[in-house]
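User: C-alpha cells for this one?
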Amino acid sequence: MRALLFLFLVYTPSAWAAPPDSLPDGGSGVVAVVIDGDSFRLKNGGADVRMLAIQAPKLPKGRKGFKAWPMSGEAQDALEALVRGHTVTLRLGQNPRDRNGRILAHVVRDDGVWLQEALVRDGWARVYTFPDNRDFAAELLKAESEARAAKRGLWRDDTYAVRAATPEKLAGDVGTFQIFEGQVMDTAKVKGRVFLNFGADFKTDVTVVIPPDVVPMFTKAKLDPLSLKDKTIRVRGYVRSYNGPSIDISHPEQVEVVP
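Assistant:
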C-alpha cells in the first residue's frame, strides 16, 4: 500500500510549484512521526506541526469516543510516503502556533515539492482556509478541483462528496465541515450583512451569511456578493442550523463561482 502510494505521489514532481517559499522560514527538519494526514512531529524533540490550509480525514489520536473518518488511514499513508527520506522546511503563516502549541505552516520538501498541494492534488485532503491562513488558496482550490473531477483519494467516498444546496441534502450535516454547490436564487443586504439564498423561503432553505466586517474583504477580492444572484457557486464551511442549513462566511476563499 505505502510503496504504491509513494510511486503515485511522486510521478510528476515538476508539476508542483512551491509558492510558500515567500513565507517566513520556520526552520527545517526530518519527520519523526506522521500523526495523521495533515500533521506530524519532527525529530530531535521537535514540535508537532499542523499543515496550514488543508484538512485530511481525521484519526482518533487517543480521543475517547472519536471514530476515524473514512480514508483517514490512507491519507496518513500518503503523507508518510511524501516525507519518507526527505528533509522538510516549514513556511509559517500569520499565526505561527495554534492553541495547542502546534506549529502552523506550509511545508516544502527538500526537492521543492509543496506538500499541501501534493496531498490536495492527489485527493487526500480538502482545502480548509481561515482569515489568517488564506495564502495560496487559489492554487490549492485548483488542485482540489482537479482531484475531485478525477475522483482521486477521498473523492471516491460519498462522505466527502459536494452536497447540493438543499435542506434535504444538508440536514444531516449540521456541525460538520462541508462543501456544497447550487444556484443563488436571491441576494439581500440587511444592516450591512449579505445573505445569499438558495431557495424561495429564506426561513427553511439554505443560506450563506456574510457578516458586515467580511464584506470589505470581498470588495478587495473584486467579488461583489450581491452580484452572485442567478450564479452557481461552491461554498465551504461548517454547517449550522438557523432558518434552515446555513454557513457563515469569514473570508472570500470560502466562495467559488462555478463556470
